[in-house]
Specification:
Elements (H helix, E strand, L loop, with lengths): L2 H8 L3 H9 L6 E2 L5 E2 L3 H14 L4 H7 L3 E3 L2 E2 L8 H39 L1
Antiparallel strand pairs: 1-2, 3-4
Length: 123
């Protein structure tokens, strides 16, 4: 399929798909006319990339773990592939995500407290 078709099927703009290629996350083939062509599994791969980006991972981390992902909830990583550098990177990323979760939780709790106070005043 061509880039426009992939964009339509995934809801990801063509500009972002080109960015994913620049970041070495997608690897389209080139037709004789120079157009990018993507195999059917690229739909799943783009959805996977979007999910990882939406969860807060950087393209650097995604690029390093993407080869080991073949299902949404599983990482198939041979122990020898987990270098100390990658382990440190993943640990710091997990800590950063946890900080964001904590902040979001505090904000959620503050919103609920505000709503409860306003609703109590209305009674």
């Amino acid at each position: 399929m061509r880039i426009g078709q992939l964009a339509q099927r995934t809801g990801v703009p063509t500009r972002m798909l080109r960015y994913y290629e620049e970041q070495d996350l997608l690897h389209p083939e080139r037709a004789e006319n120079g157009y990018r062509t993507y195999p059917e599994p690229a739909v799943y791969r783009v959805q996977q990339i979007r999910g990882l980006l939406d969860s807060g991972l950087t393209t650097e981390i995604i690029r390093r773990i993407l080869p080991f992902l073949d299902e949404p909830d599983r990482i198939h990583l041979h122990p020898q592939c987990l270098t100390p550098e990658l382990a440190d990177l993943l640990e710091s990323e997990a800590a950063r995500i946890q900080q964001r979760i904590d902040c979001l939780s505090r904000n959620r709790d503050a919103i609920h407290a505000y709503l409860a106070a306003v609703r109590a005043l209305r009674r």
